[in-house]
Write a structure and sequence with these properties.
Elements: H1 6-16, E1 33-36, E2 39-43, H2 56-69, H3 77-81, H4 84-97, E3 101-105, H5 108-119, E4 126-130, H6 135-143, E5 147-151, H7 156-163, H8 166-169, E6 174-179, H9 191-201, E7 204-208, H10 223-226, E8 235-239, E9 249-253, H11 255-264, H12 266-270, H13 276-291, H14 293-313, E10 324-328, H15 332-344, E11 347-348, E12 351-352, E13 363-367, H16 374-390
Parallel strand pairs: 2-11, 4-5, 4-6, 6-7, 7-8
Antiparallel strand pairs: 1-2, 3-9, 8-9, 10-13, 12-13
Helix pairs in contact: 2-13, 4-13, 5-6, 7-9, 14-16
The structure holds pyridoxal-5'-phosphate.
């Protein structure tokens, strides 16, 4: 394929810029301890917060749904892809988020693009976004016709200035969008101040709780529950691919939001429905979340334990307040070396560099789950200490 020859050079460029990615491969199920690239390791890299990937009740629900409903619906939701189970899940997700309604969309990514694109439809609209928001929100902004205003991360003074910009003041529609929990740093958005500022300025609030749902707030309901702001946030985005450990996303808000989006949101209209097994998995995951509160407690006990061990060892864990704990390194090569040395010690923690984080903010990003035992975390922390010392990071 001669016309694709240029890609070889592009790949070489990615390699020289340390941006080339080759996925690591699971040889066993995604679990707290599993086989990655042929080696058994303590896995600190998934978003499997509640360890639902291998939960017996959730697995059984997927099998039963396949027996009862077949493997898929072979249609988009609006043609004939919606089953009574899809409707049940949407009712229950609305209950989970404390909203009138919810709409399930293919993924968290497309839930964000769909919402930004569907609501921000004119150059007279303004979309206001935190600089550290997820890539899917950035792409949502690109698809939206609105003007974009980006504020410095969680900087309320900067947000105040933007809200008072004459161009923003005279906008037709204004919408602020923020991650609830920031995916690389594990800090929580300052929702109480955001709500106050947006209420004063008549701004729609959209919170992406991908890393908050099933993780923070009462029964893992997310940042709105965490800050006791029920009824104050217009749109809540969630994903079913992190704590819920399967695939999918949803938009929760008013009934009119759902009715509007299911008629105009392009990913919803033009990409097929989730298979029954996936929907059943999400329903079972919600049951587990409500009926096995010990999982959430163990997630947070493990989080506290591991963070303290890393801090005691002298690592900088940034501003994290959640199970996402970055281990700051500040250098691409050193971060990669630390990750490689840890792997040799039986610990899997991936290095994150530019462009995912800013230059100088290179790190290892760790996430503990409810599936880890204290002995796993002790072993992982000891390995971090040994390798961190060898590389002069601590
Ligand atoms: C992971 C993530 C998404 C994407 O969710 P998927 O369901 O994997 O598509 C969206 N927003 C944030 C903040 C995320 O961390």
């Amino acid at each position: 394929m001669k016309r694709l020859e240029f890609l070889k050079q592009e790949v070489e460029t990615l390699k020289t810029e340390s941006r080339f990615i080759q996925p690591h491969v699971l040889h066993t199920a995604q679990d707290a301890v599993c086989n990655i690239d042929g080696k058994e390791v303590i896995n600190l890299t998934s978003n499997n917060y509640l360890c639902l990937t291998t939960h017996p009740k959730v697995k059984a629900a997927a099998v039963k749904a396949t027996e009862d409903w077949g493997i898929g619906t072979a249609a988009v939701r609006t043609i004939i892809g919606t089953t009574t189970m899809h409707e049940e899940l949407e009712r229950k997700l609305a209950g989970f988020k404390g909203t009138q309604a919810a709409l399930v969309i293919q993924s968290g990514f497309t839930s964000n693009t769909a919402t930004c694109q569907s609501l921000m439809t004119s150059p007279e609209d303004v979309l206001i976004s935190d600089e550290l928001n997820h890539a899917s929100i950035i792409d949502g902004g690109r698809l939206a016709k609105a003007k974009k205003k980006i504020y410095r991360h969680s900087d309320m003074k900067h947000l105040f200035e933007i809200l008072n910009d004459p161009e923003v003041r005279k906008a037709r529609r204004k919408m602020l969008v923020t991650d609830g929990v920031f995916s690389m740093d594990g800090d929580i958005a300052n929702l109480p101040d955001i709500v106050e500022l947006c209420e004063k300025n008549d701004v729609i609030i959209m919170v992406d709780d991908a890393h908050a749902s099933g993780v923070i707030g009462e029964q893992g309901r997310g940042t709105v529950a965490h800050f006791n702001l029920k009824g104050k946030v217009d749109i809540q985005i969630g994903t079913l691919s992190k704590a819920f450990a399967t695939i999918g996303g949803y938009v929760a808000g008013t009934s009119a939001l759902k009715e509007y989006m299911q008629s105009v949101a392009r990913p919803f209209l033009f990409s097929s429905a989730h298979p029954p097994s996936v929907i059943a998995t999400c329903l079972a995951g919600l049951d587990v979340l409500y009926n096995e509160p010990q999982l959430l407690k163990k997630l947070w006990d493990n989080t506290k334990f591991f963070k303290e061990e890393l801090k005691k060892a002298g690592f900088d864990t940034g501003r994290s307040e959640t199970p996402i704990t970055p281990v700051m390194v500040g250098d691409t090569k050193k971060a990669k070396d630390l990750s490689a040395m840890l792997f040799e010690e039986g610990v899997f923690a991936l290095a994150i560099g530019f462009p995912t984080v800013a230059p100088g903010k290179e790190r290892l990003r760790t996430i503990v789950t409810a599936g880890h035992e204290i002995k796993d975390l002790e072993k992982a922390a000891a390995a971090f200490k040994k390798c961190g010392k060898a590389l002069g990071i601590i």
